[in-house]
Amino acid sequence: MLVSCGDSYCAGVRILVVEDDVAMAAALNRALHTAGVVADIAGSGDDALWMAQAAPYDVIVLDVMLPDVDGFEVCEQLRLARVWTPIIMVTARDAVADRIRGLDVGADDYLTKPFSLGELLARLRALARRDVVDRPAMVSVGSLRLDPAGRRVWRGESEVSLTAREFTLLEALMRRPGQVLSHLQLLDAAWDFGYEHRSNVVEVYVRYLRAKIDRPFGVASIETVRGVGYRLREDGGA
Predict the structure, then answer these.
(1) How many CA atoms, within 13 angstroms, populate the side-chain half-sphere of residue 145?
(2) CA 63, 194, 168 angle in degrees (round to 5)?
(3) Distance CA 80, CA 103 (A)
(4) Percent of the chain having pLDDT more than 90?
(5) What are the residue ranges of CATH 3.40.50.2300 in the chain?
(6) Which of 28, 4, 5 is nearest to 16 (CA)?
(7) How far apart are CA 11 and CA 89, in angstroms?
């Protein structure tokens, strides 16, 4: 869910900037930080695909021209993967056909380079005000249900109380059922990219989750893939 933006700033919003130009990405990151926006940087389409699925972002700012998978393909693949994070496509092209293509593959808005920080923040504010009705309000995997907007979780008819960190970790697993998420992917989903990657905090919080969503119900939904990471069973342990 987007954090409401004020007239000049979008404090509290976390976005993923997909930009292969290192200098451009760094300048944008500094400017956004000044405006109170937390930004993670992906330098390629492949990085964008896994990062956007591993962490809950408010907005993705997606450059079209990337060195591997272009922005159109990234956007389309994310929508196919049921990642509904609002996407602002960015390109140096000014062709109407490119703007149409971006919207057709699932983008929410479009910016043409060069653009001002004020214009980008205005687009963020617009997305913050938008009531997106065509995106699923609930995430369900077997008997597990998760409400991203209300930050609530149920196992069957029983509501389960989770901390903010536990909720974010479970959401990352539920959005990719049956897929193995690495220790690093889960760390980046529930913490920030500056966190100590050698920490065992993921293992600790997986234990917390199991104690709340599995053990009381006599199921085992979160599987350990030794040497790789964790996955949520596609049936959610039901």
Answers:
(1) 13
(2) 80
(3) 14
(4) 25
(5) 14-129
(6) 28
(7) 21
99-124 confidence digits (pLDDT tens): 777 777 778 888 888 788 888 888 87
Catalogue the E-assigned strands of the chain: 14-18, 38-42, 59-63, 87-91, 109-112, 139-141, 144-147, 152-155, 158-160, 181-182, 222-225, 229-232
What is the predicted pLDDT for the residue at 133?
43
The pLDDT value given to residue 8: 44
Amino acid type, 167: F
The H-or-E segment that residue 138 falls in is none
Q: Looking at the domain that runs over 14-129, which CATH code has it been given?
A: 3.40.50.2300
pLDDT at 214: 95
CATH class of 139-232: mainly alpha
Looking at the chain, the domain(s) classified CATH 1.10.10.10 span: 139-232
What DSSP state is assigned to residue 61? E
Which residues does 39 contact at the CB level (< 8 Å), separation at least 6? 14, 15, 16, 17, 28, 29, 32, 33
Helix 201-209 × helix 164-174 angle, to 10°: 80
Q: What is the pLDDT of residues 182-228, one digit of tens each?
A: 888 887 777 654 455 556 888 999 999 999 999 999 999 999 999 88
